[in-house]
TrEMBL record:
Location(s), subcellular: Cell membrane
GO cellular component annotations of the record: plasma membrane
Chain ranges passing through the membrane: 6-24
Family according to the record: Belongs to the YajC family.
Pfam families: YajC
Gene Ontology biological-process annotations: protein transport
Location of the region described as Disordered in the Swiss-Prot/TrEMBL record: 88-129
Keywords: Cell membrane, Membrane, Protein transport, Translocation, Transmembrane, Transmembrane helix, Transport
Underlying gene: yajC
Topological type in the membrane: Single-pass membrane protein
SMART domains: YajC
Protein name as it appears in the record: Preprotein translocase subunit YajC
């Protein structure tokens, strides 16, 4: 191989090495950590699924996990659907409602009341231009 061919192949090799260290290697590491977390699930652990559902592990089968999402309500999930184990500081506090969760705007009014006030008592769907 002469220097001209090496000079044209070198950027391609460099690109492959950069992709490996920036994309492939970190993704493989995250997959291994997720698999390790899913295999170490035990009953009583508080978890969040990949869809955002919080629950407590009741039982672990081969590839399934049974979660209790509310008192007396149990659902069966695949282990791969468990996104992370939640520590007590991570979960949102259910005793303190947040203004947007309670349907309140910044003035403390219900969002529907605030919409009527801004629209001059007209429904936004019937508002004429």
């Amino acid at each position: 191989m002469d220097m001209g061919q090496l000079g044209s192949i070198l950027p391609l090799i460099l690109l492959v090495v950069v992709f490996y260290f920036l994309l492939i290697r970190p993704q493989r590491k995250r997959q291994q950590e997720a698999a390790q977390m899913q295999n170490s699930l035990t009953p009583g652990a508080r978890v969040m699924t990949t869809t955002g559902l919080f629950g407590t592990v009741v039982a672990v089968d081969n590839e399934d996990v049974i979660l209790e999402v509310a008192p007396g309500i149990e659902t069966r999930w695949v282990k791969a659907a468990i996104g992370r184990v939640v520590t007590p500081g991570d979960a949102p506090v259910a005793d303190e409602p947040v203004a947007h969760e309670a349907g309140l705007d910044e003035d403390g009014k219900k969002e529907s009341e605030a919409t009527v006030d801004r629209n001059g008592d007209q429904d936004s769907s019937t508002k004429q231009s």
